[in-house]
């Protein structure tokens, strides 16, 4: 037993050492829902310019719960999200604080930040409809509503309905058309599915290439990434990108965001990083490397993205959309969308 | 028809010869004992008969049916053999009854019950049929194993050191019981042991094995009275070796004087041999001027074992009278069927 | 036999049991909180589908693993098939493969654009997916095959050991009583191996139940998915915890049922005889068929996916071989090593407590410390955060109460949380392995050593520990491998800038860029192999 005590104390002391190592230094701690390899180049730039070290924990799920449990002791300063509903959830759970910053207000248009300044969008991403180049061609007249039309029977592919990107889209439909209408729409889409919802947005494009289906839902930047991937470029070349609902309310747009935690221990550096993320250098990297739409006016989208043309985006306030999230989830269960 | 014929059996394991050129025959309703020290190959022979080990060459025939010959090996499950293992090999997850009917479960239920009852009665265990093996004593487990084998109505019963785990107090009684059970059931059996007492008490016929070979086969008394080799003589109970010179057909000369044989020994005159004298064939007489001195006495009840020192040699004698240590005695060899071996080349 | 144990042993056994079950209790407590009408909504809509899928998945994986593992274990234990020497450890190799990686590889291979279907299209002149039917790997069936093909070695390992420990004379007796080898196997070997098989199957069932990455990848909606949806989607920890609690209840009931069903059997076996390889004499063609069967299992679960990974790794070597890589590897080994040793020590402590204390309820600590195994890693992570967060806050409040500066987070968000999470999940494996090894020690040895004047502690040191060392070794290795592969808890609980190989690989797999993670995947697998080989060697030697 003696050995185990020695072992335990070694472990404990090394743990404590690592725990105290991030106290009182020039650094920012980030909980990120965004994959770290996407944001690492930006963070490296930030460290280079300011000398402030950025520590990251990336996870697709559970970070908000971790923050909640850690409470005022949490080392986290910033939370990066990939979806409006997460940003709103942070606010609702009272885990974040408002930031008054002229730089942020200057960089980010009002529609892309929380009226109470508790969350800020860094980029916007469009929920596009991809269509088969060979079998359907470009669909400029298409509305999201048309996906329930019988003419698409057995021709639609999508990832899980429960994925935040789809949930946000459905929420926006609830805001636009009401709950009952949206449920009918979901039933129609489900009946049109070529296969059970599965994979990610790229898989759906691949499925179009392979002839499983003719239409799919997907975020805009995936097409950019596929076009720049040796293996996937063939998939991307098989589809057209469409911006639905141009004749009416516009295409659904989501955001990736950032918030300052309520008990951020490195508040100054954290705000510095937020400002950096909303400024030209970072915005450009978002646009160029990840094919997202920068929020800062005047920062150019990438050449590829601009080749897709101008489009009209849905102007429903993002907060409204986030509010409909539980209803959207309920409808998905009711029509057994994923099953 | 013979119950078992083994001819020229060879068996090897990992390239080592375990059995070589073995032949032995067992008649119907006879009990054969394979006797030998551990590692002599007796268990291997048993397993070869059962078909649990492959043979290198030779033939095995059970009840007139060939079960092993060159290029042919009848699997054990088709040999109709009952085997009792040293650890009894009772199935620990089954009751006594389930164990007993294990081999006959293809018969109609009623017949199974009937036969199980019959054999359990025979081994006197009818009351314990619902118990599990771990709830039984060693002797009871043994009898379950026998009942299980008997219920199967085997052509031949094999017993691998079956009494080694039994209390010596009850061992001889159990041996008698089981011998009777086997005889009553009319089953031929081969039985392996390293104990001569068990062998004498249990066997009709005895085969002494040494280093993978059969040294001698015969009835127990034949082997005891007329051992073919010193090994057999020693194994079936020790004795005293003395140099002896033949005088005539019925007499030899030894350091203990002239010894008389009850049967003609057919050895040539004037030749030297070693005579083997069992302890009970020496008689002792108390005599203050006797040449022998008692060095130790072991009391056995009906008789005593007396060790007598005489001219550098210690003699082992078994006599009915009582002697005490340091007593002077005279030794004499009683007339009997003499056992003479060729002189051992040094 | 009843032994008077020192108070410290009694309390530490109970303390460990309670500590390890605390996260589970935290979850159950959450589950008892009202979850509004959300739970009812789920029951009205999708819950039965989730339950249905879960039951089918577990049954399917169980049956398939049984069909794979039991014949293989039997061949390895009883006959001399060609290549036996290599096969007996090769059959353990799939254990080193994380299921989600295998799933990614087979999807790559078997989906529409994969080589298999491409060749078929070339041969038959088909054009699109609508021209022909091909089984969809992204389905319940696909998930069953993939999960079974990497989990069956649990059963193989336990069943083979059990077969090897059965007295040879039992099989020989059965054969002599007129049973064919197959009948003897079904009537004797199988029932006697039942405890081991039950343990193996329940390990597999719990692993399956807890799996998230694979079923998610294959779009199979199971209860784990339901837990996840309610927690992440509806943001209701209460409802998620409720579902987890129900899953837990089912697992506990199954385990209890199994134990109850064999309460009467008490089997202490003596092992007689050595000629085991001769037990089953097979014709050459049968031997080759058996060998082919075993090798195809190895190929399915290991050789094939591993070669694919090696191929990917060579293609993307320069992208993957970075300085971070070594750091991640060291992190992984350190965590897995610490967890493995601690889990084994705990298993010995509670296992021997159960044997020596012999009072009503003395097996409770062992049962308690195994409960966490059935909890999906993601949920478990929350179960860890709740008590650890509470501890941190109390500690800081205490220090501040006395006017000091609070030390911050000592438990949550540190390695300690990660180690605790792994322990809660994997101690069950160690407890199982050590316990079965303890159960094999005949009670007479305890009596002998006590009558020879040894105190319980001395007896444990001189008699039990040496006798169970093999079981402990197995426990350490199994926990080590599992900890290396663990994913969801690591994702949530890890400290800043801390990656394990599994979290690193998962980044790529989840984005279907498995090629880039291939090198890290190979390291996970290779490191997992070392203990497997040592393990099989040691089993051989004994």
Describe this structure as you would to a colleague:
- The complex is a heterotrimer of chains A (339), B (346) and C (542).
- Chain A is of the alpha/beta class.
- Chain A has helices spanning 2-20, 36-50, 63-70, 84-92, 102-107, 164-177, 179-192, 201-210, 220-227, 233-236, 267-278, 280-290, 303-307, 318-323, 325-334; strands at 27-32, 53-58, 78-81, 96-97, 120-132, 156-157, 215-219, 239-242, 253-261, 293-294.
- Chain A has 2 domains: 26-124 and 253-301, Periplasmic binding protein-like II (D-Maltodextrin-Binding Protein, domain 2); 125-252 and 312-334, D-Maltodextrin-Binding Protein, domain 2 (3-Layer(aba) Sandwich), CATH 3.40.190.
- Chain A is built from 15 helices and 10 strands.
- In chain A, strands 1, 2, 3, 4, 5, 6, 7, 8, 9 and 10 form a 10-stranded mixed β-sheet that branches.
- In chain A, strand 1, helix 2 and strand 2 form a beta-alpha-beta unit.
- The termini of chain A are far apart.
- Chain B is α+β, with helices and mostly antiparallel strands and 346 residues long.
- Chain B has 2 domains: 2-235, Rossmann fold (3-Layer(aba) Sandwich); 240-342, Nucleic acid-binding proteins (OB fold (Dihydrolipoamide Acetyltransferase, E2P), Beta Barrel), CATH 2.40.50.
- In chain B, 23% of the residues lie in helices and 37% in strands.
- Chain B is built from 8 helices and 21 strands.
- In chain B, the strands form 4 sheets. Chain B has a 6-stranded mixed β-sheet with strand order 7-8-9-3-10-11, with helices on both faces. In chain B, strands 2-1-4-5-6 form a 5-stranded antiparallel β-sheet, covered by helices on one side.
- In chain B, strand 18 and strand 19 (313-319) form a beta hairpin.
- The model of chain B has no long low-confidence stretch (mean pLDDT 87).
- Residues 268-275 of chain C have low confidence and may be disordered.
- Helix content of chain C is 76%, strand content 0%.
- By secondary structure, chain C is mainly alpha-helical.
- Chain C is built from 24 helices and no strands.
- The two termini of chain C are 28 Å apart.
- Chain C has a domain at 46-220 and 278-310: Orthogonal Bundle (MetI-like fold), CATH 1.10.3720.10.
- Classes of the chains: A alpha/beta (339), B alpha+beta (346), C mainly alpha (542).
- Chains A and C meet through helix 1, strand 2, helix 3, helix 8 and helix 15 of A and helix 12, helix 16, helix 18, helix 19 and helix 22 of C.
